[in-house]
Amino acid sequence: MVPMLGPEEADAVAETVRSGWVADGPRVVAFEKAFAEEVGAAHAVAVSNCTTALHLSLYLLGVGPGAEVVVPSLSFIASANAIRHTGATPVFADVDPVTGNMDPARVAEAITPRTKAILLVHQGGQPADVEAMRAVAGDVPVVEDAACAAGSRLRGRPVGAGALLAAWSFHPRKVLTTGEGGMITTDDAEWAARLRRLRSHGMSVSAADRHAAEQGASKIVLEGYEETGFNYRMTDVQAAMGLVQVSRLAGIVRGRREMAARYHELLAPLGLRAVRDPSYGESNFQSFWVELPDSAPSLIDVLTDLAGAGVSARRGIMASHLEGAYAGHPHPPLPHTERLTSRSIILPLHHELTDDDQRTVVDALAKALRLDPGI
Ligand SMILES: *Cc1c(COP(=O)(O)O)cnc(C)c1O
């Protein structure tokens, strides 16, 4: 993915450097506020990346050794890894073959008395049905891995609105980037305050508050450390980029949705199934994937042919249970996960792509699949 960065981001970063405040400071606070507003959450807590956002969210809920967390295998491996980082056990559940998101019926089967959370991934920006998941979750908290879902919508509201805890990524592969970076959003003020302490060594006073006190703006307060925290902070340099990127988000998503619609038009005559909006929401199409028909050559052959034609497609979403890190890890049958990971590819979709480029991609795909475009 080609990140959409312009002179505004470069200026914002340069200004931050000149200000002298490069670590966690006022720009982080401003970025948190802007991001919370954008996704319809009461609070946002900026962190170093989405993996730490996921870890901290689970840690906050008391997930630890002996606990189980239900998660899709069909996700970037960080989803499952963050569960392991708490000492808990990831329990893989299969996905819906159409949306690629975790199937509530499979989650219901995976819940045991040890289940302490469900990690629901809005995969590739495709909004997952949070309400349907809550209906099977009962008392088990649903944490949202919204790494890919900034700007996606669910029942008329942004993904993140009403979320118990949602974790976001600002890696350059995502729609909104700060280089590295992440965020946790929630409507719970006490949780947000504790997350702020936990991301910064458990410190009771933030750097911004201490600075204000030292400048005489408020009473001097000595910080305390009531619990063992982490260093998961974001810097003001990252937040300065983030502030510009948040203001671009709606436009970025509009552009991606137009390109997805164009791909749908071009792919229709080939009879290929591509990811689409679910009935209950709108995707930001961070990942635009196409399922290969049964008649198609192997995934590697198709990607090789496409690369030969100058088209940089990627394999579909990975399946964590097939990686060495999870070798021997028990799991139920995951037929839809295995089919989607081995038989889907992600087409290029970025702001520099022209209509002609999209036609070139689809023509190359038709050739690689030995299909007749007929147009
Ligand atoms: C990218 C991604 C992550 C990890 O995000 P980082 O910011 O790189 O830690 C986690 N979950 C999903 C679903 C992702 O796509």
Automatic annotation (TrEMBL):
Pfam families to which the protein is assigned, alphabetical: DegT_DnrJ_EryC1
Cell division found in the keyword field: no
Signal peptide location: none
GO MF entry, a single one: transaminase activity
Ranges annotated as spanning the membrane: none
Keywords linked to the UniProt accession: Aminotransferase, Pyridoxal phosphate, Transferase
UniProt cofactor(s): pyridoxal 5'-phosphate
Record family assignment: Belongs to the DegT/DnrJ/EryC1 family.
The protein, known as: DegT/DnrJ/EryC1/StrS family aminotransferase
The organism of origin for this protein: Pseudonocardia humida
